[in-house]
């Protein structure tokens, strides 16, 4: 089984890589990590600037497609929930195709203009224009959010309390996790052995 560091390195190495007419348009590598019940997208602002779109518009699309809440803090985007780099990359890809790439020449040299309440994508390279259809729901191709914890996987847990039977208790999303042999306040790496509803049973590694 791959270690945590190896899995993390592989996840953050993913990046959208788009073909344009005669060249490749490359978005910087996504740098994300999971912190408790949230996903931190460290270089959100760098990627937004590469796409050359307003933060409010980009964020609104991301949150709708991921089905979550979030906010921008400095150069970072904080997402409620646990999302893989691959999942976020697929949403960035969808945004690029719909709101950045010219349908005629394939170049990203475009801008969004509103004509009589109709959003239009205008290409500065070839002059082509196309209207943007209002999205009514999340893309059916979007994968479901990854579960907060899974059996057989290991996670870093903060022990918030100790139960009557002496087991440590940690909380992750909707799950209450029991870990024997730990003390309140400990931060431990533990393997999830069994999940039963909202309860999970783990062992310290």
TrEMBL record:
Listed SMART domains: eIF2B_5 (SM00653)
GO molecular function terms attached to this record: translation initiation factor activity
InterPro entries on file: IF2/IF5, NA-bd_OB-fold, TIF2_bsu_arc, TRAM_dom, Transl_init_fac_IF2/IF5_dom, Transl_init_fac_IF2/IF5_N, Transl_init_fac_IF2/IF5_Zn-bd
Ranges of residues in domain TRAM: 148-205
SUPFAM superfamilies tied to this protein: Nucleic acid-binding proteins (SSF50249), Translation initiation factor 2 beta, aIF2beta, N-terminal domain (SSF100966), Zinc-binding domain of translation initiation factor 2 beta (SSF75689)
Keywords: Initiation factor, Protein biosynthesis
PROSITE patterns: TRAM
Family: Belongs to the eIF-2-beta/eIF-5 family.
NCBIfam families hit by this protein: aIF-2beta, PRK03988.1, PRK12336.1
HAMAP family linked: eIF_2_beta
Function as written in the Swiss-Prot or TrEMBL entry: eIF-2 functions in the early steps of protein synthesis by forming a ternary complex with GTP and initiator tRNA.
Subunit structure: Heterotrimer composed of an alpha, a beta and a gamma chain.
The protein's name: Translation initiation factor 2 subunit beta
Gene encoding the protein: eif2b
């Amino acid at each position: 089984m791959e270690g945590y560091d190896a899995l993390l390195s592989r996840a953050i190495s993913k990046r959208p890589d788009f073909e344009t007419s005669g060249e490749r348009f490359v978005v910087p590598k996504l740098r994300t990590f999971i912190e408790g019940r949230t996903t931190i997208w460290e270089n959100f602002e760098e990627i937004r600037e590469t796409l050359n779109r307003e933060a409010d518009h980009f964020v609104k699309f991301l949150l709708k497609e991921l089905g979550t809440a979030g906010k921008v803090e400095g150069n970072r985007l904080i997402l409620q929930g646990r999302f893989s780099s691959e999942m976020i990359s697929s949403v960035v890809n969808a945004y690029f195709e719909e709101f950045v790439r010219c349908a005629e020449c394939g170049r990203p040299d475009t801008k969004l203009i509103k004509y009589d309440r109709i959003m239009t994508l205008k290409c500065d390279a070839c002059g082509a224009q196309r209207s943007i259809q209002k999205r009514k729901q999340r893309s059916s191709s979007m994968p479901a959010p990854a579960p907060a914890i899974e059996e057989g996987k290991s996670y870093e847990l903060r022990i918030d309390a100790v139960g009557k039977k002496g087991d440590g208790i940690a909380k992750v999303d909707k799950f209450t996790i029991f870990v024997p042999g730990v003390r309140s306040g400990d931060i431990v790496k533990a393997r999830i052995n069994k999940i039963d509803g909202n309860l999970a049973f783990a062992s310290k590694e």
